[in-house]
TrEMBL record:
One of its GO terms (molecular function) is hydrolase activity, hydrolyzing O-glycosyl compounds. InterPro entries: ConA-like_dom_sf, LamG-like. This is LamG domain-containing protein. It comes from the Bacteria. Keywords: Disulfide bond, Signal. Signal peptide: none annotated. It holds the Pfam family Laminin_G_3. It comes from Mucilaginibacter mali. Residues 83-220 form the LamG-like jellyroll fold domain.
Length: 227
């Protein structure tokens, strides 16, 4: 019996290559911020607005914001200099909060900015608003669809993914929308949690965790609470 060593070698090389790609994806390490204290987020000391507090709701612990004057400003942006990125946030929007709150807002001195927002309905439902703006070009993209409703008062993982050419938004790993986008890498910057950086559009609810990846994650790599 003759053994085709050439075909076996090619097959082995394919397996190794696939394994290397899978391993590389698995080894993408995010910067993780767990919101378990108001005076320390990651390696930073935030500026505290109002009186946000640590609380536990269901399976998750996070910082609760009152939707009136609670917020945090963190003097750094983990995505600084990144040409591609994924931001995932574990949060719970309250159904009786302001109608158009921002729960994440990052911006630099060049006016490059992004926000993760919700839009609340009278029936205690919400839909996602994901926004990116290129400050140099003064061009922005907003991903929003009022038909993609979620019940409020529950925990969700939401994601903003930028692959260098387009931005996509997700709720619990399910794609909401996507659009072409030319976004400048951030030049320093800071992040507001629970509000806009200019202290408006206050968020009522809780934020438990944020993860920042220097890559555009695939949908099957995104987190979900299973709701």
């Amino acid at each position: 019996m003759m053994v085709n060593f050439k075909n076996k070698a090619i097959g082995l090389m394919v397996i190794i290559a696939v394994g290397l790609v899978t391993s590389t994806k698995a080894q993408i390490k995010p910067t993780i911020w767990k919101f378990t204290a108001t005076d320390k987020v990651g390696d930073y000391t935030p500026a505290i607005q109002g009186a946000p507090s640590v609380a536990t709701n269901g399976a998750f612990t996070g910082i609760a914001f009152n939707g009136v004057n609670d917020g945090l400003i963190i003097p750094a942006s983990p995505i600084n200099g990144w040409s591609r990125f994924t931001i995932q946030v574990l949060f719970k929007p309250d159904g009786d909060g302001p109608k158009e709150p921002r729960f994440i807002h990052f911006e630099d001195a060049d006016k490059n900015r992004g926000t993760l927002e919700v839009r609340l309905t009278p029936k205690r439902q919400w839909y996602l608003d994901a926004h990116l703006k290129n400050g140099k070009l003064n061009k922005a993209v907003t991903l929003i669809d009022s038909t993609q409703l979620q019940p409020a008062d529950r925990w969700y993982w939401v994601a903003m993914v930028y692959d260098g050419k387009k931005m996509s938004s997700y709720v619990n790993g399910v794609k909401q929308l996507e659009s072409p986008m030319d976004f400048q890498p951030m030049n320093g910057g800071q992040i507001a949690i629970g509000m806009r950086l200019n202290k408006v559009a206050w968020f009522k609810g809780m934020v438990s965790e944020a993860r920042f990846y220097p890559e555009a994650l695939a949908p099957d790599q995104l987190l979900s609470t299973g709701k």
